[in-house]
Design brief:
With 267 residues, this protein is mainly β. The chain is 14% helix and 49% strand. A hairpin with a 2-residue loop joins strand 3 (91-105) and strand 4. The protein is elongated, with a radius of gyration of 30 Å. It comes from Algoriphagus ornithinivorans.
Length: 267
């Protein structure tokens, strides 16, 4: 009696098997395409609303942009001659706020994103070792400590920021889309100027900034999640020389803020 093999049976019906597998593949592809990323289609409908809302959490790195004065750069008779150099440092912080969106088109929105940000600015001032504030002149035989001539000035600020931004989005692909945004922001410090005047490096409390960024939206069933990176450049010269520590006062002529922020938006 001839032995019957399973593969021989499949070979007799090869055409039918291939056709059924092809139909199953098409069905599964259509289903995945309809569901999109993460196996679900967003039904929140926020893209179709004229006005929609959300909120965000954000972490940032901020620093000062400093400009030396011409008098300090005068090699013959420099102002603040005890100062060797001044270096602003990046420092982390966080912020939180709300999102208001006005829809002009499926790909164009106007965003108003008021927020409260918590900032810390650190500035390292390098003095010549013999002229470090409070330092007695060392004897010639005494070794110089290379870190002894560095003084760090710290300024903390809680800022209320009111950005107004235009947002351009790509066409939605499944449950994702990219976007770019840009605009400006008005911000003010909650701390009074009298309190700020007690710091070593004194700045004013109001500023206007240019904001630029990009991100991508991920659609879940009932909301959108949008990670975003944004760059902020301050336009105002915030420096108050008359109230700044005399040791560094004449070395600077301009202080502006600069921030890089990672936003986690929920809409």
């Amino acid at each position: 009696m001839q032995t019957t093999y399973f593969w021989n049976k499949l070979d007799l019906r090869r055409g039918k098997v291939i056709f059924l597998l092809f139909l199953a593949f098409l069905f599964s592809s259509e289903k995945l395409s309809a569901q999109g990323l993460f196996g679900m289609t967003s039904t929140s409908g926020s893209d179709d609303k004229l006005v929609s809302y959300g909120f965000f959490l954000a972490g940032h790195n901020s620093t000062y942009r400093l400009e030396y004065s011409n008098a300090f750069l005068n090699a013959a008779n420099p102002a603040a001659g005890d100062v060797r150099a001044i270096f602003p440092r990046y420092n982390p912080g966080f912020s939180l706020g709300f999102i208001g969106m006005l829809r002009f088109h499926d790909q164009v929105q106007l965003l108003f994103t008021p927020k409260v940000g918590f900032y810390e600015f650190k500035t390292e001032v390098h003095f010549f070792p013999d002229n470090f504030p409070g330092n007695n002149t060392p004897s010639p035989d005494e070794p110089v400590n290379s870190t002894f001539d560095i003084q760090t000035y710290t300024s903390e600020a809680t800022m209320v920021e009111l950005p107004l931004l235009m947002k351009y989005k790509s066409v939605r692909f499944n449950n994702t889309r990219m976007y770019f945004l840009g605009g400006g922001s008005y911000q003010f410090r909650t701390k009074s100027q009298e309190e700020a005047n007690l710091e070593d490096l004194v700045t004013t409390g109001q500023d206007f900034t240019i904001e630029m960024g990009m991100g991508f939206e991920i659609y879940f069933k009932f909301f959108k999640f949008a990670p975003e990176i944004r760059f902020s450049h301050g336009l105002n010269n915030l420096y108050q020389a008359e109230n700044t520590n005399p040791d560094i006062r004449d070395a600077l002529t301009s202080v502006r803020r600069k921030t890089i922020t990672l936003y986690l938006n929920f809409q």
